[in-house]
Design a protein that fits this description.
heterodimer, A: Chemotaxis protein chec, 7-stranded antiparallel sheet, globular, B: alpha/beta, Rossmann fold, 5 strands, 21% strand, binds magnesium ion
Amino acid sequence: MGPTIVQIEELFVRILENQGFLFGELIDSDEVESGVESAIRVQIEFTSDTEKGSISLIAPHSVACEIAAGMLGLDPEDIEDENEAIDSFKELVNVTGGNLITEAWGAEKIFDLSIPTSTTIDNAEWVKVLKTEGVLCFLVEDEPLLFSLSLNS
Amino acid sequence: MAYKILIVEDSSTARKVIKKTIGLSGLPVAEILQAENGKKALEVLNDSWVDLILTDLNMPEMSGMELVDHLKGDEFLNSIPVVIVSTEGSQERIDQLNQKGICGFLRKPFQPEQIKEIINNILGE
Ligand SMILES: [Mg+2]
């Protein structure tokens, strides 16, 4: 058993608020913009003696800038370095992933977490993820963010 | 006396956030040094003495756990207080770290007050 949707929603919204001073809410996938031209996908993998899976967060570049600005206490326009936006997004995924596995499986279980990795995806890939069953859609400061959890235990 | 603190963390964003928080802590800080993993931290410690190390666990090249092992096995470095700042949630791992002699554990996401409290407890009078 992995985390429930409610667990993911509560935890991610709380971490967004705590770390990035950003407001996030879970929305229906029909409400999500499908015309996003390109997006950043950050992935983290986790393994324990019985579980194995990954968590991916996918969002347009502007959302990564919002996250970086929130975490660093700057304005989004001040985030000029692409790497800074990606690094912040990775850290958000790192914190979300680390907390989510403990929330879902408990503090008794030992997990190894990978270092977060990032890739850029195009519109076709965005639409594909958006249509994947089980992918959660969030609105972060009025922009879309997709949350995908895959378990292969 | 003003303190020298080393932040060991692979995320540059997290390093900046921790650095900023220490700056707001009210502690007299002479210098904040930074390293992006355990290996780089040992290089920094080769050249500089620090009063406190704040380290992440999950880092490339050398993890925080390995760094703690190196520090505790070194006759000069083993007296430097180490605080872990990580997303680690496994009680067994935290117990292991405590047994190795860390001075504190702070789980991400942390509030600025928590980091202030921990370093004040260790370095403050
Ligand atoms: Mg890190």
